[in-house]
UniProtKB/TrEMBL annotation:
A GO biological-process term: lipid metabolic process
Entry keyword Membrane: yes
Domain PNPLA residues, every copy: 17-320
Designated name of the protein: Patatin-like protein
Residue span of motif GXSXG: 93-97
Superkingdom field: Bacteria
Organism whose genome encodes this protein: Hankyongella ginsenosidimutans
Assigned keywords, A-Z: Lipid metabolism, Membrane, Transmembrane, Transmembrane helix
Gene3D superfamilies on file: Cytosolic phospholipase A2 catalytic domain
């Protein structure tokens, strides 16, 4: 009598992410969080197969070069030893990492897609798009800077490939000239435009589904009952008074500028919709964590989100 094959043990690999900040890291951090999102999707697809069939099932993805298909093959390969399930249930981030952490957390909680964010970062996160209209230079603004920019352009263009370098150099020169000749001594970028870009990015995240992937559209990337926590660090420009108990003197008062926005999806029962928070609150947190007083003018974003976009923001009211 033959002995039935042993079923591999199921183990969970739970990841807690800390996404660092930095202006130049925004697009890079998007790529990192997107790969983690693809790994989570592949893990979910692997575990949706019937027991015992996941190891012999064909790769369900259309494009074999997509990293999501590679992650699926990897999980299936190691599945003969351990049935691994990959989860992310804690995300913390600041600045560029905070923005991408917010987007990833939303995709995990409600099963939406990060695919549209590629165009958001490449097309909209641009000097020409984010400049405040009142700060934008015109043809004659700071005309004395044109010779300096022309000389810089000639010196920097030497190390680039002829055809590719010519197109890149023209674009770089145009945008650098626009930025340098725009408003000085006051923030050049528009906080409202930046907030609009982030809110649009959240609202344009469709339910994540692929033609051949065995996953329902809008299905969360966490099992029922598993909570998701998001922490977004921000800086309170004016600060608040904080009392610290000591020995001598007994108490001191100092000004604290650190704040943390917390979001929690408690992990609902099967069949119930999961939610990390409204798009308006997530956009506000993403915008606040990437605030630079010298870059973007301080503006009443809560009022703008509530009134001009009419976005639902439960528990918040716009000031008159």
């Amino acid at each position: 009598m033959s002995t039935p094959p042993k079923t591999p043990k199921t183990k969970e690999l739970r990841l807690a992410l800390v996404c660092y900040g930095g202006i130049s890291l925004a697009i890079y951090m998007h790529g990192v969080t997107k790969e983690i999102w693809k790994l989570l999707r592949a893990s979910r697809a692997f575990h949706t197969a019937p027991d015992g069939a996941e190891f012999s099932a064909a790769n369900p993805y259309d494009d074999p070069t997509d990293t999501e298909a590679v992650y699926f093959d990897l999980l299936r390969e190691i599945g003969s030893h351990v049935k691994l399930r990959v989860l992310v249930d804690i995300i913390a981030g600041a600045s560029a990492g905070g923005i991408n952490g917010v987007m990833l957390a939303k995709a995990i909680a409600d099963g939406s897609s990060l695919e549209p964010h590629r165009s958001m970062w490449l097309d909209n996160a641009d000097v020409e798009e984010l400049l405040d209209p009142a700060a934008r230079s015109n043809r004659w603004s700071k005309f004395y800077m044109r010779p300096v920019l022309w000389l810089w352009n000639r010196l920097k263009a030497g190390g680039l490939e002829p055809e590719f370098g010519r197109k890149l150099n023209e674009e770089m020169h145009r945008k650098l000239s626009l930025f340098v000749r725009s408003r000085w001594f006051k923030p050049p970028f528009s906080g409202v435009r930046f907030a609009r870009m982030l809110l649009d990015g959240l609202e344009q995240m469709p339910p994540s589904a692929r033609k051949a992937a065995p996953c329902a559209a809008g299905e969360a990337l966490l099992p029922p009952g598993v909570p998701l926590d998001l922490f977004v660090t921000v800086t309170d420009y004016f600060g608040y008074r904080q009392r610290i108990r000591m020995h001598s003197p007994p108490e001191v008062v100092e000004r604290e500028h650190r704040m943390i926005f917390t979001f929690r999806d408690p992990g609902r029962d099967p069949g119930q919709k999961r939610s990390l928070g409204s798009n308006a609150s997530l956009a506000f947190a993403a915008r606040a964590t990437a605030s630079f007083p010298a870059c973007s003018r301080r503006q009443p974003l809560r009022r703008w989100i509530r009134r001009s976009r009419k976005a639902a923001w439960h528990g918040r009211t716009a000031p008159p």
